[in-house]
């Protein structure tokens, strides 16, 4: 896993992934007490950064292997990213999802052209289903984060941040990244190490699901005690990845942690001041910049908004935090 | 008023205004029955395209004249655009607003650094107040649309659309523009005439406030019978401008008209599929593309989202149209 893989992924993504802008608002600067720069990956295809990694992984496959199709386990943003990337490559995608997944997520994944295979969480193993389907049909598994070509794709977001920060004259800043398994975080960290060494990556996670912050502190991989019961579900994973964690440990500053209420209030500010739609898990980095300012250093802070796939009732909950 | 003024404005806006992206979603294509491309000016500074025209006008002033300051009559997007452009030029801005303007708009305009002068709509004339202040302080009036340097600034959005359409291989399409006084529409029309002659501008307006559609049909300037009572208030003006109308008449196709409900449903789709926040008046062009498809020609349609300055209760009303 190295910077050359990220640069190669950027070449493959050119003309396919969106180069998202870098947004700002004097109102956010006022709240944060420093300049806040926002990288809105909610504006990426399929509404999250996951399209980058999915495209990177698919485009890196041998065409003979790729044409048999790909498979992913996900009920969320990774599923949609893989489904659309496969469709645009003209190859089949199978997405294995729990049968109690939200209907909208199932429908969206199907609408992006994927075949959705549902399973019963209690009585079936998705790994067994996946292994059987892969063998029968020659499908290639696209892992959500602990896979070099996926990390390389997410890292292209970091190359853009480095270039956009340089355009704004920012040489030194914390870059806060919404962190689940660490694919986006480790990819951005490698990109910044090469192209903007004055920018330091920090992770943001929901309170009670801070496996990465604890792992960074202890120096070893720590697990979450629970995997559900938080509105930031899109970025909750059991533990950091075997490939992503050593990169994060080497390059990241201390992890930041925010409450659900702070995530909702950050969503409301992104609506009000940036005119963008973020999901709770996608807003934790902005929440850290706005509401945990004493834990951040420097005159500038850069944050990712990792996704915007949120339904109306949850978004209304966020808007209700205004005034 | 000509294309060279637009190109010169683009030079002055470089590094100051945002180059907004061109977004799309297969879900919107499905509804519209053709490919839909969205130019989200809600992501522009101050949340609307108005910053372009304001920056263009301020930057075109003689520095000696500019340093005394500028004045504008507006309670909305133009006020915020002028306020921020003046602040960034380091010169004073006075914004004359009705005293019954929404508190949030007054506060935002002040927060962008402007001095807000309130007047009583019933007993005072804003023109008299403006004339007195201008004389006393040497302020230059920045008109909202019928002013060549303002039109030139809005036209920079058209230069971007021409370049972005070419990148996507779109040679022929209707370009639907949310239309009030016609500053954005005429600026985009001039830019496309020069840089993308296969793209034809169409106006979009709210039902009952279709002065431009009627003017385009009759060939002369027609007025609106009323100026309030519609949620698309941001784009309602008494009549098209003396400078903007001849340009629109020469270059635009027939005007499109949508209902308030269609505007709300378009806002909901922009939330759901593009992850952006639009105001009702800013969503009329997307509404026309999605819900008036029989009145549009071609395989592709490009629409502007002109602004995103909407408060939470109105946005919630839009979200409630989903399902």
From TrEMBL, chains A, B:
The keyword Magnesium applies. CDD domains: Thr-dehyd. It comes from the Bacteria. Its cofactor is pyridoxal 5'-phosphate; Mn(2+); Mg(2+); Ca(2+). Residues 15-305 form the Tryptophan synthase beta chain-like PALP domain. Keywords: Magnesium, Pyridoxal phosphate. InterPro entries: Ser/Thr_deHydtase_PyrdxlP-BS (IPR000634), TrpB-like_PALP (IPR001926), TrpB-like_PALP_sf (IPR036052). The keyword Iron-sulfur does not apply. It holds the Pfam family PALP. This is Threonine/serine dehydratase. It comes from Sulfitobacter sediminis.
């Amino acid at each position: 896993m190295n910077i050359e893989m990220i640069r190669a992924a950027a070449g493959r993504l050119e003309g396919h992934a969106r180069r998202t802008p870098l947004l700002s608002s004097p109102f956010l600067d006022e709240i944060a007490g420093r300049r806040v720069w926002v990288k809105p990956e909610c504006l990426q295809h399929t509404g999250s950064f996951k399209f980058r990694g999915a495209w990177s992984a698919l485009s890196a496959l041998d065409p003979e292997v790729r044409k048999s199709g790909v498979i992913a386990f996900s009920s969320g943003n990774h599923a949609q990213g893989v489904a659309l990337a496969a469709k645009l490559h003209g190859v089949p995608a199978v997405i294995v999802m729990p049968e109690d997944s939200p209907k909208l997520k199932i429908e969206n994944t199907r609408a992006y052209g994927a075949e959705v295979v549902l399973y019963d969480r209690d009585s079936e193993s998705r790994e067994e289903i996946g292994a059987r389907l892969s063998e029968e049909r020659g499908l290639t598994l696209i892992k959500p984060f602990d896979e070099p070509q996926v990390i390389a794709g997410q890292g292209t977001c970091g190359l853009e941040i480095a270039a956009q920060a340089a355009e704004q004259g920012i040489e030194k800043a914390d870059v806060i990244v919404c962190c689940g398994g660490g694919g986006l975080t480790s990819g951005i960290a490698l990109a910044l190490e090469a192209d903007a060494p004055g920018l330091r990556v920090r992770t943001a996670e929901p309170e009670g699901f801070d496996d990465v912050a604890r792992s960074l502190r202890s120096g070893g991989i720590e697990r979450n005690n629970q995997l559900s019961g938080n509105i930031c579900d899109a970025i909750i994973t059991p533990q950091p990845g075997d490939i992503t964690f050593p990169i994060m440990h080497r390059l990241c500053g201390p992890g930041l942690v925010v409450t659900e209420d702070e995530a909702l209030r950050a969503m409301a500010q992104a609506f009000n001041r940036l005119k963008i739609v973020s999901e709770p898990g996608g807003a934790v980095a902005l929440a850290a910049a706005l509401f945990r300012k004493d834990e951040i250093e420097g005159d500038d802070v850069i944050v990712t908004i990792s996704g915007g796939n949120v339904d109306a009732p949850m978004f209304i909950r966020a808007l209700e935090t205004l005034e």
